[in-house]
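In practice, a research group might receive sequence data for several interacting partners and want a quick structural hypothesis before committing to experiments. The following worked case mirrors that situation: the sequences arrive first, and a predicted assembly follows.
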Amino acid sequence: MSAVTDLLQQVVEGLGSGAVYASLALALVLIHRFTGIVNFAQGELAMLSTYVAWQLVASGMPYWLALPATLAVSFAGGMLLERIVIRPVQGAPELTVVIVTVGLFIFVNALAGLIWSFTVKDFPQPFPDGGLDVSGVRMDWSTLGIIGVVAVVMGLLYLLFQHTSIGLVMRAVACNPASARLSGIRVGWVLMLGWGLAATVGAVSGVLVAPVLFLEPNMMGGVLIYAFAAATLGGFDSPVGAVVGGLFVGVAETLTGAYVDVIGADLKVGVPLVIILAVLLVRPQGLFGRAAVERA
Amino acid sequence: MSEPTTGSTEAAAGAERDFLKVSDLYAGYGQARVLQGLDFSVARGEVCAILGPNGAGKTTTLRALCGMVRGRGSVTLNGTELLGRSPEQAARLGVAHVPEGRGTFNDLTVEENLRIGAHLRTGPRRRGRTERAAVVADLERIYDYFPKLRQRSRQAAGSLSGGEQQMLAVGRALMLRPSLLLLDEPSLGLAPLVTRELFEIVRAVNEEERTTVVVVEQNAQLALDIAHRAHVLEAGRLVLSGPAGQIREDGQVAEVYLGVSVLSRKAG
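A structural hypothesis for the assembly, expressed as tokens:
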């Protein structure tokens, strides 16, 4: 009986961290769908956003005011980034683009260190202490809060893409930019919107994870690897896949850490890498992605 | 409100005749110059066919008209210069281009594809109730032209047959309510019966809505069936221009004297 409770407990913990991976994976997938780019700097951008939130709170702004302000700054920053850094290399060979995003990773990381130093900072926890006890399984408000926030983000994105005209336009651009142009759509603006949106979703993941991991410039490095595993598992083109993949990776990480003695807490970082490798070998397009078909 | 004088009627007639006016058009890709100075006009409400062998510059001509490739010279639509504009700007001026290979949005449903076509009229600034009603009416209009699309309105465009996708691409272009419709090789890869059906619809659209059409085709017979005028391109230059009927006759002449097989049916 207590073994089952223990298992459920681990699953709940896993879903909590999985929700964070899911939101960063969602950001990765959004950008990949719009531009075909894998943004290695996504985690660092989320970290930068988290510092913005920290700075606002530290200068006396209430948390629930600092949060929307941070998301707005992240949105604008993502748009600017697309226009200034990514647009010039759009259409360049893949390796060029990869190197640009890796360069961005290093730049943003160093910039954060320069401004805020590499010492660890406490980040406010927005959710109250304590939690629920459901027949022996403990669910902290913070864990439930994280899952809830990610669910809300998912819901909002779904509404945006499926039920608004701007969402329809964005899907059209992601699907076929040349035809979108011929229909009079200003594709450049839509790409900027996509990057802004991804930066905002990424910022959510940073702000959610910061109270747990503590804020420092390298905070998102590990999260990014889990998010990559999540996006690979779900399929790099599928927002739903990113979320399912994120939750799965979170649970897999917690369970292997808790039950496989050989792995334990130290080696559990290997779990996402094993998942990435396995998916690429068995089903490269991921669970929800479509296989790329190229005409000969 | 002055009385129309003879002069202004003539000017108006000229504007009608030169609704699309291409003068001394040069265009190409990088170093490769494809078009070597084209001159032709299309009257308002006319169907104009551009014929010629592979590599003659037919597709490049259409791309220059809609801003997909840069050109030199002049292209005016109803007096407004089109050269130097991006495809999205050209679309805003009423130019609807159906590219070779269709260019449908395969992840979107048929109806979403059509709504994208009306995007310019339903953009954030133009979301009036009347405009929305007009878009719904337009959807019905397109479905009346293409009944198959109505049956498949909730299906993903990628799941349609080649012919249905081509019809969807044309339908989407018509949702723009264009003043100039550009069709690039609409028959490409389609079965002959489907192609004929498509051309009949284009003819109906042209007759009922007076939409000006420029169609590029390898299948000259088909294009000449619906065209009022035709031009034959060869190596980036016009070698033959005239009413469609005359081109049909002169085509044989061209074939003999110029070695241009403009009327060959091998394509499609």
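Before designing any experiment, note the following. The radius of gyration of chain B is 19 Å. The beta strands of chain B are 20-29, 32-42, 47-51, 71-77, 80-81, 95-98, 180-184, 212-216, 229-234, 237-243.
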